[in-house]
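Data availability excerpt. The first of two example chains:
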Amino acid sequence: MTHFTSDMNSFRGSRGLGPLQPNQALARAAQAHAEDMSRRGYFSHQSWGGPNGNTFVERARVGGCAMGAGAENIAKGQRTEAAALRSWVRSAGHRRNLLGRGYTQYGLGRSGDIWVLKLAARC
């Protein structure tokens, strides 16, 4: 994940934004959502009846992060962290999340070719 952190923070830095720090609670929540989507065969920010909550805020809370402001990016089909990041950078909505001015922390999860990135101002 070192390359992901440096690549993501380089992208943010090139836009005048500060770096994001990895957060274990966000990583747990991201990993749980990636695994749930993979196991139950869906791809969505909504996880109706999911074991970790229905929304990204609920999943963060279950993972141990009572986030204030936050966002969630999901991707499917990429084989590497770098490819997932590139797809988010190329998507206007995902890029907007990556460039959130108030975010200071992130967590990344992966199950097969499903990726989840959770961003938060604080936990």
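And the second chain:
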Amino acid sequence: MTGSLIAECVLRIAAAFALLGFSGCTSDAPLPSGQPSFYRNLAEGGQLDPAAAQSMISGYRANNGLGGVVIDPVLMKLAEEQTRAMAARDKLDHNVGKAFQQRVSGYDAKVAVENISAGYHTLAEAFSGWRDSPPHRANMLKTGVTRMGIAAIYSPRSKYKVFWTLILATPDDKRG
């Protein structure tokens, strides 16, 4: 084995041991109080914790030299409407109802972005999926966003089971 291959194997073994310490967090059993809410399985009756999502996304942005975001009630409603529309049609689409730019009227259209996804059962999975996808990561790291809305809807008849929408934006000058 070469030195770099050995180093890679050592890193993988260390990562595996680190994950063993978190093995209780990925159980399908109900989470004891005190466990992070971002591991709640929404396909098994768990509920999304918007504050945990806000903390996770703001922390990620801070780690990348950007300002955090705050939960915006209007964006929360828009994210829920978009997620429900996708779940009702069993389809991932930014424009299942109104087009995205129409939905975010009152927010700066040059800054507003949206991540949609389906199939992730926990906030941790959705966040990791977005972080590992270049266009979704770019949205989470969009310069100038200050507000967010997020929703996840369980759809038992869908092959995806859980649909997600994250909207990041900043109010336009008229909205404040």
